[in-house]
Amino acid sequence: MQQDSAIHISGLNKTYANGFGALSNINLDIKRGEIFALLGPNGAGKTTLISTVCGIVQPTSGRITVAGFDSAQQYRAARAALGLVPQEISTDAFESVWNTVSFSRGLFGKPRNDAYIQDVLKRLSLWDKKDEQIRRLSGGMKRRVMIAKALSHEPSILFLDEPSAGVDVELRKSMWAQVRALRDAGVTIILTTHYLEEAEEMADRIGVINKGKLILVEDKHTIMQKMGKRQMIFVLRQPLATLPATLHPQPLVLDDDGSTLTWTYDAQAEIDISAMLDQLQAAGIRPKDIYSRQSNLEEIFMELVEAV
């Protein structure tokens, strides 16, 4: 286990009574103070992994250490270091925001600390709603209350399971800013999300899980560099019916209406655009415009999942 690990997982397996293997030999170190995004299709094992780390689901085998505490032998200390925001919003609809968050703190045996609760509510833009009943809040505000509840006992690690589910774009952007602020305050964030632009925007590192197996853990920027593809798009002056035979050896694709040629290449490769332009010109093609694009995380994710 690394000294800077917030969570250390080794040889983790979970097989249910019906024989279904939900997790298979998971090995993972999550660093203190990072935002780690766990990605995977539905049924991949994301929620099972989170539930196992949080002590909600018992593993079949393996070891989990949370904030230096063994999750099996030192369960209370390990659980106290964790805050969990589940997908489902579950609160007392008729209770006030202040009472809900304060009560959650008491469940962990923490002494009353009004100043801390006030700070959490202000950081999450909930202070002006502190006396409102939960049922009167919007979906986005309820989601923030769930985060405030998870932070109420001052955990050093926060799990966010689909934090933006049901939240509009404006609130989602605001939530991203608040999550970054928590990270800057020293809280380790682990999030699962179906919004891959969310992971691309926020995460320091990314893990991809599929069919219960962790198939990739890597720094976000390294993933984009190592696995990303670049494309050069040539907009043609006149449509082509077919690609000239002299260009067949090149990785060029003519679109359906013949108006653009797309050249796809490795993002790390050194390319000679002038040589390609010379070949196009030799084939009688003079583009009227050229622009480039790089593959995003969603495209890389789909390629990884389909390969398993």
Q: Explain this structure to me?
A:
By secondary structure, this protein is an alpha/beta fold. The chain folds into 2 domains: 5-224, P-loop containing nucleotide triphosphate hydrolases (Rossmann fold); 229-307, Alpha-Beta Plaits (2-Layer Sandwich), CATH 3.30.70. The protein has 10 helices and 14 strands. It has helices at 46-53, 75-80, 97-107, 114-123, 139-151, 169-184, 196-202, 220-227, 273-282, 297-307, and strands at residues 5-15, 21-31, 35-39, 61-66, 69-70, 82-85, 157-161, 188-192, 205-210, 213-219, 229-236, 252-254, 260-266, 287-294. Strands 6-7-8-3-9-10 form a 6-stranded mixed sheet, sandwiched between helices. Helix 3 (97-107) packs parallel to helix 5 (139-151). The longest helix is centred in the middle third of the chain and has 16 residues, at 169-184. The radius of gyration is 24 Å and the shape is elongated. The two termini are 28 Å apart.
Using only C-alpha atoms, the radius of gyration works out to 24 Å
* Averaged pLDDT: 86
Strand sequence of the main sheet, in spatial order?
Answer: 6-7-8-3-9-10
Listing every helix as H and every strand as E from the N terminus to the C terminus, the arrangement reads EEEHEEHEHHHEHEHEEHEEEHEH
DSSP helical segment count: 10
**CATH class wording of the largest domain:** Alpha Beta
Distance between the termini: 28 Å
Fourth-level CATH superfamily of the largest domain = P-loop containing nucleotide triphosphate hydrolases
What characteristic shape results from the CA principal axes? elongated
Number of beta-strand segments: 14
Based on the structure given, which CATH architecture of the largest domain is correct?
3-Layer(aba) Sandwich
Count of discrete structural domains: 2
